[in-house]
Amino acid sequence: MQNALVAVAHRASATVAAIAGLRTRARAAGAPVVFAQQEDEELEPGTDGWRIVSGLTPAAGDTVVPKAAPDSFLGTELDAVLRARGVTEVVVTGFATEICVESTARQALSRGYDVVLVADGHTTSVRPAAPGRYAAPEASVAHHNEIYRNLRFPGRRVRVLPAAEVDFGHGSPSSGPDAPTSG
């Protein structure tokens, strides 16, 4: 959820608000908050477009993991950061649904984490109305939510929840995720 990406995002303010609410609740519950921040030729470190949007600015105690690929685990310290904190389940949010969010969620599963895909906490770019190669943004988000609702991954728990239903409490039968991860 970086400035340049949010500028072209479908439902940008609603998605940022959903993620901000999750972040606040995660912090209150003592769950670690981890941001994956893209760095490349289009999102050059230090530029305004590269910065995380003001509504989600990392705070003291949050971790920012720089990444150069859609998969937030590839070539980064994300796995080490999560394992060092004893995280077993990640909450996946961010931009873009079918690129970074999808890649990160699948890799989290492949690396042994349970996953919560936040149904209203990920989005994609606004697309031209003319027929094209991409699904409309609402269709893309809905499609990925449905895939994850039906995804069976051996030994893993996969859930799709609206932000309001994500529980960061520990020790209860409805205990939720340990670490929100913005892709």
Note down, in words, how this protein is organized.
- The protein has 183 residues and is α/β, with parallel strands linked by helices.
- The chain has one domain: Isochorismatase-like (Rossmann fold, 3-Layer(aba) Sandwich), CATH 3.40.50.
- It contains five helices and six strands; from the N terminus they run ααββαβαβαββ.
- It has a six-stranded parallel β-sheet with strand order 2-1-6-3-4-5.
- The radius of gyration is 15 Å and the shape is globular.
- The model is unreliable at 171-177 (pLDDT under 50).
Key features?
183 residues, alpha/beta, Rossmann fold, six-stranded parallel beta sheet
Question: In a nutshell, what does this entry contain?
Answer:
It is built from five helices and six strands; from the N terminus they run ααββαβαβαββ.
Major sheet: 6 strands, parallel
Count, helices: 5
Q: pLDDT under 50 segments (min length 5)?
A: 171-177
Looking at CATH, the homologous superfamily is: Isochorismatase-like
Order of strands in the sheet with the most strands?
A: 2-1-6-3-4-5
CATH architecture: 3-Layer(aba) Sandwich
* CA distance, first residue to last residue: 7 Å
The number of distinct β-strands equals 6
Structural class, from helix and strand content?
alpha/beta
Percent range for helical residues? 25-40%
Layout of helices and strands:
Elements: H1 3-6, H2 12-29, E1 34-38, E2 63-67, H3 78-84, E3 89-95, H4 97-110, E4 114-123, H5 137-150, E5 158-161, E6 179-182
Parallel strand pairs: 1-2, 1-6, 3-4, 3-6, 4-5
